[in-house]
UniProtKB/TrEMBL annotation:
PANTHER family: GLYCOLATE OXIDASE SUBUNIT GLCD. Signal peptide: none annotated. It comes from the Bacteria. Its cofactor is FAD. PROSITE patterns: FAD_PCMH. The keyword Protease does not apply. This is FAD linked oxidase domain-containing protein. InterPro entries: FAD-bd_oxidored_4_C, FAD-bd_PCMH, FAD-bd_PCMH-like_sf, FAD-bd_PCMH_sub1, FAD-bd_PCMH_sub2, FAD-linked_Oxase-like_C, FAD-linked_OxidoTrans_Type4, Oxid_FAD_bind_N. Keywords: FAD, Flavoprotein, Oxidoreductase. One of its GO terms (molecular function) is oxidoreductase activity. Residues 42-220 form the FAD-binding PCMH-type domain. SUPFAM superfamilies: FAD-binding/transporter-associated domain-like (SSF56176), FAD-linked oxidases, C-terminal domain (SSF55103).
Length: 466
């Protein structure tokens, strides 16, 4: 596709649509942050940035861009890790972060309707203040809900509650041609034709731009307790997880972590972790409406852990203890990032009973390629977060080792019946690995869907399957 550049005439036309010059940026007035997301190394500045405030503005801009063959990329907080909001072809960035209003709390239908720029942490606080609960809990709390929906973000509570897709009841979406679609709604059940809503969720802004979302809520669990369980070896810890799941005492979260990552988090936060007796830990949380209900579940799990070789089981039943543990877990990514010059990440997902084998494989790669590899992850749902660190390697050495290690990891994930991404998405950075992991027919079906929504391929081009 031959795209057109944004010319002075186009900027003037856009000004007549937006009618507020303070929300339009071009040339030297574009902040460098718009050229990248948290991944960092995929960079391209847009030619024009528009901070939109209404669905109608998004619709009018898309109609104009479609007619004039100008590529458009939607963006929220820019906290992604695969380059999904980087405008690879230049063109226009539609910044949705200013559409950040909570529109309606419907306590009869247990739904919350929001604009796409509302932050995850704002949703969490708002519903908790109303004694309600939005379960999806991705690590980056400053991400926007539009970005969460676009990547089908998961997080630590996925073991018990599922992922973002399970909590999206309805969407308002602007298509690449500028039409406004209303998908789903407040209904609990819906078998009315193809689920276009579910195609939009996880499509990383390639099929449409989300301008409103209706989210499913739950009653707020009244109590939560965490268990910190040290093991002699990480493999033993992770191999215990399928036995915990099989026991039917389903925790809210099951995380695995290693001593070296905990030490990095301690240094980064300037806080001490509650225990240093081991190099391998499981961290579990249980929630419910009574202490008795939670105790029944965690006691069963504690017994399983001790029987499988746990050194001890520490119960964190106060807010202070919980905060000490979970703040360290929440800081893992930033702590690892601050310890190196550059890094890239893999967020493969494998069957739960294959997690231990995959982690062991990463240890083997670390020795074989003489490169630092750090990992932690959601042991309860098989989603691993693995970080390859550049440190003092030369650029040439780094690229060679990184490409080799990445390829080996994705090949191993495929061998274990896993998938390329559990929650961060494909974006630009993981396209090659997605193509390698899926059949040609599968990729062609994805491209066919994209072509139906976006015949000119102007919306977020170069991502996912293109």
């Amino acid at each position: 596709m031959q795209y057109n550049k944004v010319l002075e005439k186009n900027i003037e036309d856009i000004k007549s649509i937006v009618k507020d010059d303070d929300r339009i940026f071009y040339g030297k007035n574009i902040n460098e942050d718009y050229s990248h997301d948290e991944l960092g190394f995929v960079r391209k500045l847009p030619e024009l940035v528009i901070k939109v405030s209404t669905t109608e503005e998004v619709s009018s801009i898309m109609k104009y861009a479609y007619q004039n063959n100008i590529p458009v990329t939607a963006r929220g907080s820019g906290t992604g890790l695969v380059g999904a909001c980087v405008p690879l072809k230049g063109g226009i960035i539609i910044d949705l972060s200013g559409m950040n209003n909570i529109l309606e709390l419907d306590e009869e239908n247990l739904t919350l309707t929001v604009e796409p720029g509302v932050l995850l942490m704002e949703i969490s606080k708002f519903v908790q203040d109303n004694d309600l609960f939005y379960p999806p809990d991705p690590g980056e709390k400053t991400a926007t809900i539009g970005g969460n929906i676009s990547t089908n973000a998961g997080g630590m509570r996925a073991v018990k509650y599922g992922v973002t897709r399970d909590y999206v009841r309805g969407l308002e979406v602007v298509t690449p041609k500028g039409e406004i679609l209303n998908l789903g709604g407040k209904v609990v059940k819906n078998s009315s034709g193809y689920s276009i809503k579910d195609l939009i969720i996880g499509s990383e802004g390639t099929l449409g731009i989300i301008t409103k979302a209706t989210l499913k809520l739950l009653p707020l669990p009244k109590k939560a307790i965490s268990l910190l369980v040290p093991f002699k070896e990480l493999e033993t810890a992770i191999e215990t997880v399928p036995k915990i799941i099989k026991s039917k005492a389903v925790p809210t979260a099951i995380e695995f972590m290693q001593g070296e990552v905990i030490l990095a988090a301690e240094e980064y936060l300037g806080k001490k972790f509650p225990d240093h007796s081991s190099d391998a830990y499981l961290l579990l949380t249980f929630d419910g409406n009574s202490k008795e209900e939670i105790e029944k579940n965690y006691e069963k799990v504690a017994d399983i852990c001790l029987k499988e070789g746990a050194i001890d089981v520490f119960i964190s039943d106060t807010e202070e203890r919980q905060e000490a543990i979970w703040s360290a877990r929440g800081a893992f990514l930033e702590a690892i990032k601050s310890s190196t010059t550059e890094m890239d990440e893999v967020d493969v997902v494998v069957p739960r009973n294959k997690v231990a084998g995959f982690v062991k494989f990463t240890h083997k790669l670390q020795k074989e390629y003489e490169i630092r590899i750090k990992s932690f992850g959601h042991a309860g749902d098989g989603n691993l977060h693995i970080y390859i660190l550049k440190d003092d390697l030369s650029e040439e050495e780094w690229q060679t080792k990184l490409n080799n290690v990445m390829k080996r990891m994705y090949d191993e994930a495929k061998e274990l019946s896993g998938q390329v991404s559990g929650e961060h998405g494909i974006g630009y950075a993981k396209r090659e690995y997605l193509s390698d992991s899926l059949s040609d027919e599968n990729i062609e079906i994805m491209r066919g869907i994209k072509a139906v929504f976006d015949p000119k391929n102007i919306l977020n081009p170069g991502k996912v399957c293109y």
